[in-house]
Hints:
elongated; Nucleotidyltransferase, domain 5; alpha/beta; single chain; 4 helices; 5-stranded mixed β-sheet; cell membrane; two-stranded parallel sheet; transmembrane; Biopolymer transporter ExbD; membrane
Amino acid sequence: MRRRHLQGQDQDEAEVNLTPMLDVVFIMLIFFIVTTSFVNETGIDVSRPQASTAQAQTGSQVLVAISDKGEVWADGQRLALGAVGAEVSRMVARQPGSQVIIQADEKASTGDLVAVMDRLRAAGIEQMSLAAAPGMK
């Protein structure tokens, strides 16, 4: 009689417990959210020139874009040329150890690029890079 009772219990309790699996999925979700690095876009699309020696940069980055019309963008907002140094300095201060990368459009004038670089250096930013697309035309 006791055997029948135990066999009846086994049939009633033949369910899969999903709680441990949900716990693992939740922990993985938290892990991926915490370890994800977010990229701050400049606010415009820039057609970068191609270079065969272009290298991917890692780490935290502050992106500054120069359009083909000479407009300067950073962090989704258009900046006046005189305010570029101060604004980018604030962005770098918020992200210690970040690199400043200038994305100049292929058709942007060299004068605009030099003016932006000059303003950044005057604001105390010595380390900056120019963005290029990998490959050669």
